[in-house]
Amino acid sequence: MRFSTVLGAAFSLSSLLLGVVRAEESVTEGEPEITASAAFPEDNAFNQIVNGRKNALTVTVSNKSGLNATLVQILGSLTNPNTGKLVKNLTEAKYNGFPLLQDIDMQIPYVFYSEFKPGEHRLNLWVEHQIDDKKYRVEAYDSVVSVVEPEFSIFDIKLILTYLIVAGILGGAGFLTYQSYVPQKKKGKKTAAPAASTPVTATATGAGGYEEEWIPAHHLKKPKSAKKASGGFTSGTSGDELSAAETSGTEARRRKGKKN
């Protein structure tokens, strides 16, 4: 009876020891010795994530498993530090078979863009690698970080260029709208002033002091007899130069003579 009891205890102890050994072997086979860590640059000593900018971390991966491992991707997330609720999954940086050399610390940059609510958040980063068609995930970073807004400066070149570009676009759009919807005044056509007619000047020729070709023919008819002027001088003036009174008197005398 005692022998059977001792034998049963021995079998139980051997089974327990065998189970522990198998568990250790399964852990060794399931988790190759590949470690990873991440850190912010030296100029970011307070581990701040700045909104509106690209934030970078350096991930160091070390392969001490003695196996041929390849890097698949680096991924991360932001969670609430108090409740653990997911805030946002970060960019997945895929490497698709990048070899992880044995016994060498490989530094790999990881960059992500931030547009999160300012405050305290928990940042987690993981390195996913592959060995013989099996994928494993190793945690590289787990810490609380601060999300902050960028510092404003009137001498920020990027900000000034952004304002200039926006102002140029708005100005061009406003000008096109004004040209399209506001009626424009039509400019009247200038008419050329008529050229002043050149006056015709008569050149004085002959004794009369004029050119007869410019005078109508009925004005050139001379009287039949010359009239004697007072003082004994005979007038050599043509009939067109007689005054209106003299012409009227001559006509009256002619009519009177006909009646007699």
UniProtKB/TrEMBL annotation:
- List the subcellular locations: Endoplasmic reticulum membrane
Q: Where is the signal peptide?
A: 1-23
Q: Which domain of life is it from?
A: Eukaryota
**Where exactly are the transmembrane stretches of this chain?**
160-181
InterPro entries on file: TRAP_alpha
Polar residues composition bias: residue spans: 235-250
Sequence segments annotated as region (Disordered) = 221-260
Query: Per UniProt, which keywords does this protein have?
Result: Endoplasmic reticulum, Membrane, Signal, Transmembrane, Transmembrane helix
Q: Name one GO cellular component term.
A: endoplasmic reticulum membrane
Q: Does the keyword Endoplasmic reticulum belong to this entry? A: yes
Q: Which PANTHER family match?
A: TRANSLOCON-ASSOCIATED PROTEIN SUBUNIT ALPHA, TRANSLOCON-ASSOCIATED PROTEIN, ALPHA SUBUNIT
The family note in this entry says: Belongs to the IRC22 family.
Stated role: Is probably involved in a pathway contributing to genomic integrity.
> What protein is this chain from?
Signal sequence receptor subunit alpha
